[in-house]
Automatic annotation (TrEMBL):
<feature type="domain" description="Enoyl reductase (ER)">
    <location>
        <begin position="2"/>
        <end position="320"/>
    </location>
</feature>
<keyword id="KW-0521">NADP</keyword>
<dbReference type="Pfam" id="PF08240">
    <property type="entry name" value="ADH_N"/>
</dbReference>
<protein>
    <recommendedName>
        <fullName>Enoyl reductase (ER) domain-containing protein</fullName>
    </recommendedName>
</protein>
<dbReference type="GO" id="GO:0016491">
    <property type="term" value="F:oxidoreductase activity"/>
</dbReference>
<dbReference type="InterPro" id="IPR020843">
    <property type="entry name" value="ER"/>
</dbReference>
<dbReference type="InterPro" id="IPR051603">
    <property type="entry name" value="Zinc-ADH_QOR/CCCR"/>
</dbReference>
<dbReference type="InterPro" id="IPR013154">
    <property type="entry name" value="ADH-like_N"/>
</dbReference>
<dbReference type="InterPro" id="IPR036291">
    <property type="entry name" value="NAD(P)-bd_dom_sf"/>
</dbReference>
<dbReference type="InterPro" id="IPR013149">
    <property type="entry name" value="ADH-like_C"/>
</dbReference>
<dbReference type="InterPro" id="IPR011032">
    <property type="entry name" value="GroES-like_sf"/>
</dbReference>
<dbReference type="Pfam" id="PF00107">
    <property type="entry name" value="ADH_zinc_N"/>
</dbReference>
Length: 323
């Protein structure tokens, strides 16, 4: 673990062998998520339990070999990876990537491999946050960090399902991004006090408050959230990076009976991921999604893709074009 420029190296390995339910992908793009850079950097003192790992969970490529139990019509299909390498030693940042057939989704012709490579973690996290135990129609959502990749999709999923969305940003550029994807109320948390944010949300909801909060940084907003959620509302939070050990104000949450979901979407296999894949594929075929900007790097510049992901001033996804 360490700095991207110091620990990410290019190396050669034997061609991966696949099992009977596996497919072998010739990768075209591999994308970087915050979890990838945290693992690489040794965030919170974490260390690798293996001599090496090939990084990244998400990517897109072509199926060039199939296991004996896989239907032959999958051969040569373009697919994107959907949960196939989480916590695995061999990730997608390689020329070839083996995975179970259940961990890939066919790529519609309407979507490029570059865009598809960046879908996996963000759309799974957004889908679970919006839809788990929930029908968004006519609800009001509070989705923080609206220009981030998960929130970018969560806002659109909620809006396409009939919800109204309040989001937060830290700049005018991010405000324009959120306006473009349909957010109804956009609040700049650097220009507003917490009390002002609460007041605007009360006014927007006509005093009814928020049905569901999707939170990118629980520790940052831990005191704001219970002020804006209505009784029996739900908080779905998928990260807590600014303060990994927040003080939890129990008796701000308890009187409202607020439900708290810690989101790890890829722990929910089978039917959940299948529904998510079908939902996203349908939107891709209809060209109904606006995707985040993408900065693409060459294979030899993988470390630069990690550095870009870690740079809070860059508003874009990072992926690597595999040679």
């Amino acid at each position: 673990t360490g700095l991207a420029s110091e620990v990410l190296k290019v190396g050669s390995f034997e061609m991966p062998k696949i099992q009977e339910n596996d497919v072998l992908l010739k990768m075209q793009y591999s994308s970087v998520n915050p979890a990838d850079t945290k693992k690489r950097s040794g965030w919170l003192g974490a260390s690798l339990d293996k001599e090496f790992i090939i990084p990244h969970t998400d990517g897109a490529g072509q199926i060039v070999e199939i296991g004996k139990s896989v239907e032959k019509n999958f051969l040569n299909k373009m697919v994107w990876v959907f949960g196939g390498s989480k916590d695995a030693q061999f990730g997608t940042c390689a020329e070839y990537f083996p995975t179970n057939i259940e961990n890939v989704v066919e790529l519609p012709k309407e979507t490029t491999a570059s865009v598809a490579s960046c879908l996996g973690v963000p759309v799974a996290t957004a889908y679970y946050s919006v839809f788990s135990d929930n029908n968004p129609e006519n609800q009001i959502f509070f989705i923080t960090g609206g220009a981030g990749s998960v929130s970018h999709y969560a806002i659109q999923f909620a809006k396409l399902s009939g919800a109204k969305v309040i989001t937060t940003v830290s700049s005018d550029i991010k405000k324009e991004i959120c306006k473009n994807i349909g957010a109804d109320l956009i609040l700049n948390y650097r220009q507003l006090t917490e009390d002002e944010i609460v007041k605007q949300i009360i006014e927007f909801t006509k005093g009814n408050l928020v049905d569901r909060c999707i939170e990118v940084d629980f520790g940052f907003n831990v005191n704001l959230i219970p002020k804006i959620l209505r009784p029996n509302a739900t908080l779905a939070t998928y990260s807590c990076s600014s303060n990994p050990n927040p003080v939890f104000p129990y008796y701000m949450y308890a009187p409202k009976g607020i439900n708290i979901k810690i989101v790890q979407a890829f722990l929910h296999r089978n039917s959940f991921l299948s529904r998510c894949a079908d939902f996203v594929t349908n939107l891709l075929k209809k060209d109904n999604l606006i995707h985040p900007e993408i900065n693409s790097f060459s294979f030899d510049e993988t470390f630069k893709a990690h550095e870009a992901q870690e740079d809070t001033e860059i508003i874009a996804k990072s992926n690597i074009k595999i040679k």
